[in-house]
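note to self — DONT lose this again. spent like an hour looking for the file last time. sequence + predicted structure for the chain T wanted, 137 res
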Amino acid sequence: MSAEHANLPPGVEVIATLPEATAGIPAGSEARTVRVTLSPGDPGAPPHRHPGPLFGYVTQGEILFELEGQPPRVLKAGDALFEPGGDVIHYLGANNLPDAQSELVVTMFAPPGTPVLTVVSAEELAERRHLRFTQPG
C-alpha cells in the first residue's frame, strides 16, 4: 500500500491506479460514467472503438474482454480495466456467464458530442487483422 493510501477511512479502498491513463485524454474532454449490463451469454457490442480512454470496474459477474493487440482475458467482479480509446479496436466485451447477468461501470473521457462507441466495419477489421492477438478462424 502506498503512503497516500495508508490513511484512508474504513470502507474506502483504492482498487487500481494507472497514472499513464491521463496521457490519452483528448483536450476539452468531458467525463462520462457508463454502466454496461449484459444478460446471460450476451456477446456484447460488435467490434468497436471509443473516442477516448476509459477506466472501469466489473461490478457483477464475468466479462470476456479483448482489445486489439492483447490476448482475450476474463475480468471478474472486483477487477479493474483500462482501455486507451482512440484507434484501438475493442473486439470483445461479452458476458462470460451463460446463466447470470454481468455488469461493469466505466468512466470515459471523450470530446463532447462524440458517440460512446463506433462500430468498426468488416473491411477495416480485415485490414487490421494482423494487429489482433488472436487470429479468428
